[in-house]
Amino acid sequence: MARKPGSTPQAMKNRAAKTAAAIAPASALAQPAEKPKKRTSPAQFAREVRAEARKITWTSRKETWITSVMVGIMVVMASAFLFGADALISFLIGLVLKLAKAG
């Protein structure tokens, strides 16, 4: 079985070290002064928006149908459970009230 590239222990350690360095907060003294952010032109902004919009993937009709059916099944199951719980609690409260009235 072939190993995936970058799955050696050393490569994993290197990635972990880079991640830890990126996540770790730098001390206030070590932080460089903030640079003013470069403003992008409206044309550049529009190009970046289009590039990001091209990355969107839409689900297929089959995936949408299956997901909708699963949601419907879960709604029916949840409503049946809540109906049963409500009926049980109503029955128990009715019993308690009958006992209180009789006594």
Question: What average pLDDT do the residues reach?
Answer: 86
Q: SSE order in H/E notation? A: HHH
Secondary structure: helix percent: 55-70%
Major beta-sheet overview: none
Tally of contiguous helical segments: 3
Oligomer: single chain
Give the terminus-to-terminus CA distance: 77 Å
Would you identify the regions where 5 or more consecutive residues have pLDDT less than 50? none
Structural class category: mainly alpha
Cα shape = elongated
Q: How much strand?
A: under 5%
The Rg value, from CA coordinates, equals 30 Å
Task: Count the beta strands.
Answer: 0
What does this structure look like?
By secondary structure, this protein is an all-alpha fold. It has a domain at 73-103. Helix content is 68%, strand content 0%. The chain contains three helices and no strands. It has helices spanning 9-23, 42-54, 61-102. The longest helix has 42 residues, at 61-102. It is elongated and about 80 Å long. The mean pLDDT is 86.
